[in-house]
Amino acid sequence: MKDYYKILGISKDASSEEIKKAFFRLAQRYHPDKGGNPEKFKEINEAYQILGDKEKRAQYDRFGTVFEEAPFGARRGETPFSEGFDFFSFGKDFDTSVFEEIFEDFFGAAPFARERTSKRKRGRDIFVDIKISLEETFTGVKKEISLEKFTTCSRCKGNGTEPGTRLKTCPSCRGAGKVKEIHQTFLGTFTRANVCPQCQGFGRIPEKNCSKCHGEGRIKEEKKSVVSIPAGISDKERILIAGEGEAGEKGQNSGNLYVRVYVMEHPYFVRRGDDIYFNFDVNFSQATLGDKIDIPTLAGKVGLQIPSGTQAGKLLRLKGMGIPHLNRRGKGDMYVKINVRTPQKLTKKQKELIKRLKEEGI
Length: 362
Ligand SMILES: [Zn+2]
Ligand SMILES: [Zn+2]
Prior knowledge:
Elements (H helix, E strand, L loop, with lengths): L3 H5 L7 H15 L7 H14 L2 H10 L2 H4 L27 H11 L18 E7 L1 H6 L1 E12 L14 E3 L8 E8 L2 E8 L8 E3 L11 E12 L7 E5 L15 E7 L5 E4 L2 E9 H6 L1 E7 L2 E7 L8 E4 L15 E8 L6 H12 L3
Parallel strand pairs: 1-9, 11-15
Antiparallel strand pairs: 2-7, 3-6, 4-5, 8-9, 10-11, 12-13, 14-15
Helix pairs in contact: 2-3
The protein binds zinc ion (2 copies).
One zinc ion binds next to loops.
């Protein structure tokens, strides 16, 4: 008859947190590698296997020592400490999650995650900045940039093998693509399968490396890329060009190219959203009587009718003369803000005329 609560030195109403802590403390104290008693260690583990599992604990609480009669015979694979001393040399199908949980509780991170799946890295991403003018956001523009980056080797097409030679089984992992890594911790020795560093998980390596790239599958060189910047792009917007980053090693996927677009300030147009604002000065007489004027727009000069009696500060709208919308049809508008110039230096004749106006109540 085993009292698992007694073994872990906890009360029957201990929380799962307390159970974990008790197990952790005792596992350290009784670990055989640290001169502890293996029998005792095995017992502690057994207790934890039951009490640390909600369902098993409930069964145990209900049926008492029932488990002792048939101690998880069918589930032996789940009990890591059941076979003498090779406690932590578990096979591939051993579930380390219980230990990860404990480690996470105590250290905030698990030192041995479950088998690392994909360690194969694609090429690096590249980030560049491009400056464009406001006019270029109106039309869209193609910019050529030159980047020094890893590109796929033209001789071996990226696989790192000298043309005409073959691949052979990787000697490091014997073709498995994975190698075991052994970790020593105070709880014992853990093994973990990692992607083989020699073949990057392929299981095969070239018989003879490519003479141009020395087997890397890529070479560093200056390469031009053309970046298509669409009309309507906004300042600081980013464009992703998939696969234009650095080539990965041995034919692995390329990274991406990210282009950050900076739209330079314009000497007289101001952009707000997709609308363009423009200040235009008119004379008092033009504002009063109305006039037809030429104003600059992003599409060139256009004629604009100033209505008679236009007040200072009036916004005149030129529909569809703004920046094209990036993700939908149509364009923003252009707003012309009318400033009325007050004359400062007048000739004698002008002064006379203004005086006459004044007398007329204007
Ligand atoms: Zn090559
Ligand atoms: Zn290998």
